[in-house]
Design a protein that fits this description.
The chain is α/β, with parallel strands linked by helices. The protein folds into two domains: about 1-255 and about 450-475, Aldehyde Dehydrogenase, Chain A, domain 1; about 255-440, Aldehyde Dehydrogenase, Chain A, domain 2 (3-Layer(aba) Sandwich). The protein has helices at about 40-55, 65-80, 85-95, 100-120, 155-170, 185-195, 210-220, 230-245, 265-275, 300-310, 330-345, 380-385, 400-405, 420-430, 465-470; strands at about 1-5, 5-10, 10-15, 20-25, 30-35, 125-130, 135-145, 145-150, 175-180, 205, 225-230, 250, 255-260, 290-295, 350-355, 370-375, 390-395, 410, 415-420, 440, 455, 455-460, 470-480. Helix 2 (about 65-80) runs antiparallel to helix 4 and helix 4 (about 100-120) runs parallel beside helix 5 (about 155-170). The relative contact order is 0.13. Bound molecules: nicotinamide-adenine-dinucleotide (NAD).
Length: about 475
Amino acid sequence: MHAYDSLYIGGEWTPASGEGAITAVSPADEQTIGTAPLAQAADVDKAVTAARSALHSAAWAGLTPSQRADAMERFADELEKNQAHRAALTSKQNGMPIAVATAAEGGAPPGLLRYYAALARTLPREERRPRLDGLGDTVVRREPVGVVAAVVPWNFPQTLTMFKLAPALAAGCTVVLKPAPETTLDALELAATAERAGLPAGVLNVVTGGADIGAYLVAHPGVDKVAFTGSTAAGRKIGEVCGRLLRPHTLELGGKSAAIVLDDADLEATVRGLATSSLLNNGQTCYLSTRILAPRSRYDEVVAAVAALAGALTVGDPLDPGTQVGPLVSSRQRDLVESYIAKGRAEGATAVTGGSRPVGRDKGWYIQPTVFANVDNNASIAREEIFGPVLSVIAYDGLDHAVALANDSDYGLGGTIWTSDPDKGLDLARRVETGSVGVNYYALDVGAPFGGVKSSGVGRELGPEGLAAYHSLKSIYLPSQGAHQ
Ligand code: NAD
């Protein structure tokens, strides 16, 4: 049992002001694995106050960018020490296969901190530019945008938190983090790690709870910027609130990306790549290519290969290193995925593999990886984000049709192109309306912007662009030497 009895606010472990608790339940066997306190509005008030006071404190605002980078690197050192623990804690809570958790949840956060620490060291705080009208100079100054409300989902909780926390720290901001209720334990562990690393009090605060506490935090008068990752539905609500308050925000939302398989693709290599680019983390990853577009001339061949891949994946306990597909995060999520499988069948698609719960697993929220053939791009399973291991194979006639199908989506987050001609792949990638797209593989690049177009989001994380989102720019106009009022 992982029992946490306090929230992390202002550098202190603080009991929540109410009696409520969050119970973490294992998606693998439905047993209770931990508890955490449930924050109330008064706790959010305290956390925002602590973050505001740290924002102006000598201990944080008084540091040079390079001293802040030192603090971030000490945090990274501590995160490296408990990498395996944080990875396992994530797997236990959300069902992520441990091999994925070790690389992503364990390994990515310290790497992100080091990347943004290096940027903090090199990016000048101020730049002096000659004015275009010759009247003098302008000093363009980067200031921290202020107190950041970071609201994250359960699917990659440690990594997605660090997508926000690392650039926020590099810019000199302070943060109130609100994790998803499904993955509260690892967020409190992250706070304990920050404390061990000596991150100044109030720079990172963690409050717990669901959508109501998230909404309270996002609209809080003491918050200067909102960084959100989650569903498009919640993102729209948060965007509305931020619009009304004129509050800067980044929204990383859902997706329904396309894998375009060209007629010259090496199918064996393609299918190996699709195992991660279309099914990573039990299908619970936002950028996955869940619509597989296949040339009509090779349609049956592609369907057979994708079905063989999905059918051969090892479904099992997320903590077993041999597991490729673990359980879904919650019974609610499995109900949702099952409802889409039923909808797919009702709309005339054929489940060529999977389509039900795996035999012999009576406990846990497992579902077999499922591949649908004969899918129309207008079907619900092709248009809506399912967030489970369910793929649709859709036929196309010619490259223009493939691009039109890929772009005929409310979303635009990821995508992949599979071809033996990389130049052709690059050409096609340029035509896909999306925030990121991979040729013959898909892997986020920490040094390049990531985010969505259309209903997949607003703004970008990662890369130098991801740091810019945490800066407020001030122009200071100076007269030319010798000039005076
Ligand atoms: P969700 O939107 O239900 O919840 C995400 C977080 O927001 C949780 O912490 C939740 O408590 C909080 N929340 C919900 N409603 C809120 C509101 N009105 N105001 C403030 N906070 C609110 O999403 P989820 O089910 O936890 O996560 C899955 C979704 O996240 C999927 O749609 C997935 O595509 C998306 N996602 C996107 C990215 C990306 O980078 N684009 C990455 C991972 C996940």
